[in-house]
Amino acid sequence: MNKWNLIILGLVFLSNVCAYKILVAFPYPGKSHSILGEGYVRHLLEAGHEVTYITAHPYKKPHPNLKQVVVASVIEKFEFAQSLDFKKMLSKEVDFKDMFTMYEIMAVIGNRSLTHENVQKFMMDPNEKFDLVIAEWLYHHLYAGFATIFNCPYIWSSSMEPHPVVLDLIDEVGNPAYFPDHMSPVSPPLSFTERISELWNLIYLYRVLWFVRDIEEQAFRDSFGAAAAKRGITLPTLYDLKYNSSMMLANSHYSLGDPQRLPANYAAIGGYHIEDEIPPLPKDLQKIMDSATDGVIYFSMGSMMRSETLPMELKRKLLNVFSKLKQTVIWKFDGDLENVPKNVHMVKWAPQPSILAHPNAKVFVTHGGLLSTTETIHYGVPIIGIPLFADQFLNVKRAVRKGFALEVPLGYDTPAKLEIAIREILSNPKYREKVKELSFIYHHRETKPGKTLIHWIEHVIETKGAPHLRSPALHVPVYQKLYLDLLALIILGLIIIKRIVNSLCSSKSANKKKGEDKKKKRS
Ligand SMILES: *[C@@H]1O[C@H](CO)[C@@H](O)[C@H](O)[C@H]1NC(C)=O
Ligand SMILES: *[C@@H]1O[C@H](CO)[C@@H](O)[C@H](O)[C@H]1NC(C)=O
């Protein structure tokens, strides 16, 4: 084949790759959620598609096929961030395990980003058209509304391991006897009391969903009503819309969570946000890590907690613990500290994947957010988890159960407990061996998660919403699933049979009595 043939072949190939217009709706102001949103943006742009990205943290690398709708001002009014304060957590002033508050706050934040003027202007523009919407599910269903506005199919994106509320959207809730809620620290096999408490959790969850339903419907109309009216579309109820997605792409994988029975319209793409090529470390960090012959302990409590809210007493005690170690400590901390020991390096920003990928990284002290626990399995580094809120408790418990982590609760005695945990995890090789084993399972897939993501997105667009993937369970009411109608029929049948038998018996005995009476009369 000569050069020209090759070029022509290349052009034919290129023209066969269709560029689709895809809306990635990830306006939630939490930084880790933007990292997940950016994962979609990056893979879609690389695959040649045109992307519009709704976000509070704009994507830094400009691209001719990328348009952004920025809702940055939502961050300022982000109550959630205000409550992410170590002091308040230590005094138990805020409790993120309360589901009512969680669902309500999330719907309010969702409504706030959607009623943002940039989003409203964007939806009102009649030139905006899309082939597909990717809507993040995060304790509310509002972003599905874009599918109605742009009259196209949509895919749910879930940032967590599968759990009852998200599976309900595409199939049905799992059986609580072996499928615990994502906020429960228990794992199968469940004891009798755990099974009862999981059943109760499920009922409670449905009470919460019932409670927020009106707020969500109202927010849905507040957010999309104007744009729908302008485009001459009648809004469905959010309740109908939320069960109408084509599928769910989820940041999950059985190496990270538990094995679960999943429907055909669920694709696990855990780890898709991690780039194949690890960006090089900044020169100073590279030098620190290369020269740390005893290893590096990386300490980061995530991007949401404000380090300056950590009480002084705790900061001093932590530094004191670190000063006793021969390892180098890299502490991601956004405040200023005095009298920092020589082996401790404070950094305001840390390229987490590049640090974890370094062969000298020995332990990762983390809050246990799902992105961090994913990255730690990706690169094979054991962790010490100090969970603070939301799914972090479960992530850390799960990591401990899987055998590559130790848990240290947040409290004024954290530094002392942390010291014991660090010494244990450094001296006992079992944690490292376990995380390497899981890392192998994690990487051993048919295709890389980014490829899987592109495959399913194109599949949904090319098959016009992929109706063939939808679970028939979506349209079966609970009473039919539990065969309550059959049970009712059987009970009714039994009652009728009993009545008939009773009346037969009583008429028989009445006849008998009559006969006896007659006999008596005759005699
Ligand atoms: C559900 O999706 C289909 C196709 O994607 C669409 O035609 C239909 O109008 C949607 N229904 C609702 C209630 O959004
Ligand atoms: C949604 O936001 C708009 C504008 O910010 C506000 O007027 C409306 O009350 C909000 N709706 C709900 C249900 O919070």
From TrEMBL:
EC number per UniProt: 2.4.1.17
Annotated TM spans: 482-501
GO cellular component: membrane
Domain of life: Eukaryota
Signal peptide: 1-19
An example Gene Ontology molecular-function term: glucuronosyltransferase activity
Subcellular location: Membrane
Membrane topology: Single-pass membrane protein
Reactions performed catalytically: glucuronate acceptor + UDP-alpha-D-glucuronate = acceptor beta-D-glucuronoside + UDP + H(+)
Pfam families attached to this UniProt entry: UDPGT (PF00201)
UniProt keyword terms in alphabetical order: Glycosyltransferase, Membrane, Signal, Transferase, Transmembrane, Transmembrane helix
SUPFAM superfamilies, A to Z: UDP-Glycosyltransferase/glycogen phosphorylase (SSF53756)
Family: Belongs to the UDP-glycosyltransferase family.
Name of the protein this chain belongs to: UDP-glucuronosyltransferase
Organism ancestry: Eukaryota, Metazoa, Ecdysozoa, Arthropoda, Hexapoda
Gene: LOC111348848
